[in-house]
Structure formats: C-alpha cells, structure tokens
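User: Good morning. I'm curious how uracil would be positioned relative to this chain. Could you predict the structure with it bound?
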Amino acid sequence: MRIDKMLANLGFGSRKEVKKLLKDGAVKVNDVVIKDAKQHVNPESDTVTLNGEVIEYKEFIYLMMNKPPGVISATEDQYDQTVIDLLQVEDMVYEPFPVGRLDKDTEGLLLITNDGQLAHRLLSPKKHVPKTYFAVIDQEVTEDDVLAFEKGVILDDGYETKPGILKILKSGIHSDIELTITEGKFHQVKRMFEAVGKRVVYLKRISMGPLELDESLELGEYRELTDEEIELLINNQ
Ligand code: URA
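Assistant: Good morning! Here's the predicted structure, ligand included:
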C-alpha cells in the first residue's frame, strides 16, 4: 500500500496534508526517512513512524456498542444522530458500519465493524445466528406464550416466524422476559408479542451469536472487541 494512502486512511490528514508531512521528513519506514508519497509499505511487516511514534495499522476494526435509545443504527441519517456519530474520529476513519439494525428506541448490543464479510455472514438468514433480547412487556406473559413462540407465531404480514425461545424472568402486570430468535425481520420482537396481543415497552439486545453485551458499558459507550471475542465471532461462522 502507498505510504500516503496508509497515513490518510488512518486519519493523519488528507493526501495533500500527508504529502507535506512526508516532505517535512516526519515519516520513517524501518528507520529511514521517506519523502516519496508513492513509496509502498507493507503495513504488516514494515515499521512506520510519524514524528518518532510508531503507527499501528489494522485493516479491520470491531467495536461493541451499548446502543442508547434515540439513536439510529445507520451510518447517516438526515434528521437523527447515528451510532457512527457517537464514535471517536480515530475509529471513524476505518469507515465502520453497524451490523444489522436495532430500532431507534432499542438499546443494547450493537456490533460495528468494517469487516463486510463477517457482517454478511452474521446477517445471512441461512446462518441462523441467535440473538437474545431482554424485554419488558405491558402485561402478564404466560406459558401459552412460551409454547406459541416455540411453534412460531404469525406476524401482521402473514409471515410465520421460526421458533423462538421465550424465558419468563418475572411475570406480573408488567413482565420481564428474554427471547432468543434466529431471524431478523423488521421489528421482529415487537411484532411477535403483538401476535399474541401484547406490547413490548422496553427492548434491549443482550447477545448476538457468541458475543455478549459487556454490561460495564454505559449507554452510548463502546469498546473494541478483545482478540478472544473476534476469534469467537470468526470461528463461529
Ligand atoms: N426486534 C425489534 O422489534 N426491534 C429491534 O430493535 C430488534 C429486534
């Protein structure tokens, strides 16, 4: 990869600004000052420094966010803040995008990456990646609902869902539940409850495949996945 492209990709300035850094002798590759913007470097094996600081280059970035309500799971939106707007500039330069969508009012686990292949596999209906949600329901959830979800329910558009595993955590005038589904139809959890005459009043995703929400993340906070989490995700395909 060209040195000017690498530095620009990493957010050290536009190609023009990077050219100036090079001209000023601020960049070294393997301890040798490089002034030619066209110089090729191997980000894996060459040591690149800028003003004496080693630059780390990685192709992919994997972030786990605890999505807050009121924010859109998209890269751009005309009216609302997006999850990408919540990232630090040094993470934005990788041009990551959210893997799948959570509704504007849904909270919880959102994977944000620029690894298109991984995203594609996680979202592929053929892979049946399980997603678990915690929800508060506006009324009593019963064993009948557990059985109905186990069989699959008919949504408002006539679609019959695949089986879902419903666990009642607390039943009462408001119920706390956990639901695991292997599909990702639009508003699926809300519509599954509508199919049994109930309403979701709070929704939070707590896991996706092998990835579990890090509960130490406040709403709107995010962190990079650990190497172990990345390995689990990639090997789980
Ligand atoms: N199901 C929903 O209804 N909403 C979400 O955000 C995710 C799953």
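The longest strand covers residues 200-208. Residues 53 and 94 are 20 Å apart (CA to CA).
Let me know if you'd like a different ligand tried.
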